[in-house]
Design brief:
alpha/beta; 24% strand; globular
Length: 334
């Protein structure tokens, strides 16, 4: 039997700060192919919040435990489990429901072992954001050293990862951020990660944004996670037959494109949802996760996070929902 667990659960969909509650969960049987994992850390992702709200395409039957990503340590094993040992560091693969609890019991096929020495906070967050960044860089356009990309939402974790992964490949990056207090500081942080250029949206209110490129080539590939005007700015930078990939819509405004951009620039607009890829390329994604965690161990992939003890989950949730202004990614530590 597993130890009893403490979990963040919701009995109905709705506002996360209203419908979630911390409850005690009884011990469950650890069957012969199961692994009982003591959770060490789990992030609060926007998709986790959307699932609780009932507005995400993948929904969980309620009552449900929140969270889909995280990292833990093998606590105990079923009698038929092979290839795992107590103390191993593991992550759920693919990301699945129920990581916001102190102990998780799932079949061994749901767990992926990661190398010892991997920083816990990076193991906990490697799937949803860094893997998205890597796949988008590799799946849409064949980029070579010296090429360029452009993106909005550059301060997000995906944005930070794109900057660093592009730099490792010799690819230049043009980055667009919101106008807000602290934007100069945000620019400096992105430059330290390897960003070539960082502009606020208001700085791009010029007749020809390409006049700002200097010696950077026109980007072949752009990434949009905002929508609205921020998406239009990405398209303005793209070269002839360039491609913009949309993977989010933080402004909740639609992506609009001019007729001339379609006809005369022959732009391509694509969408990316990691869930589809995980289902079709499971083993390939595992190898990419191992590669990304190797970069994290070497200090070549970093991003801003804030750890919060599990007992202070409510504070972490408020920060994740924007109630306390702009905050780093929230990581629950168990």
């Amino acid at each position: 039997m597993s130890p009893a667990s403490i979990a963040v659960m919701y009995d109905e969909e709705g506002p996360p700060d209203s419908v979630t509650k911390m409850v005690k969960v009884p011990s469950v049987e650890v069957k012969e192919n199961d692994i009982c994992v003591k959770m060490l850390a789990a992030p609060i992702n926007p998709s986790d919040i959307n699932k609780i709200q009932g507005v995400y395409p993948v929904r969980q039957q309620v009552p449900a435990v929140g969270g889909s990503e995280g990292v833990g340590q093998v606590h105990s094993l079923g009698s038929a489990v092979k290839g795992f040992s107590p103390g191993d560091l593991v992550i759920p693969y693919p990301p699945s429901f129920g990581t916001w609890q102190t102990y998780v019991v799932k079949d061994q096929s749901f767990w992926h072992k990661v190398a010892k020495g991997t920083p816990v906070e990076y193991a906990a967050t490697v799937f949803v954001n860094p893997l998205t960044a890597l796949r988008m860089l590799e799946d849409f356009v064949d980029l070579n050293a010296g090429d360029a990309i452009v993106q909005n939402g550059a301060t997000s974790i995906v944005g930070q990862c794109i900057i660093q992964l592009a730099r490792l490949r010799g690819i230049r990056s043009i980055n667009i951020i919101r106008d807000r207090p602290g934007s100069d500081e945000a620019k400096e942080k992105l430059k330290k990660l390897g960003a070539d250029e960082v502009y606020t949206e208001s700085q791009l209110e010029v007749k020809n944004v390409k006049s700002l490129l200097g010696n950077i080539p026109e980007p072949a590939l752009g990434f949009n996670c905002v929508g609205g005007n921020a998406a239009t700015l990405v398209m303005k930078f793209l070269r002839q037959r360039g491609t913009m990939v949309t993977y989010g819509g933080m402004s909740k405004k639609p992506v609009t494109v001019s007729t001339s951009a379609f006809i005369f620039k022959e732009l391509s607009l694509r969408g990316f949802w990691l869930q589809n890829l995980i289902s079709s390329a499971k083993e390939e994604c595992k190898s990419m996760v191992d590669y990304l965690l190797g970069l994290a161990r070497e200090g070549k992939l970093t991003y801003e996070m804030e750890s919060t003890p599990f007992k202070d989950f409510r504070t972490a949730l408020d920060k994740s929902m924007g109630k306390l202004g702009s905050q780093p990614k929230q990581i629950i530590r168990f």
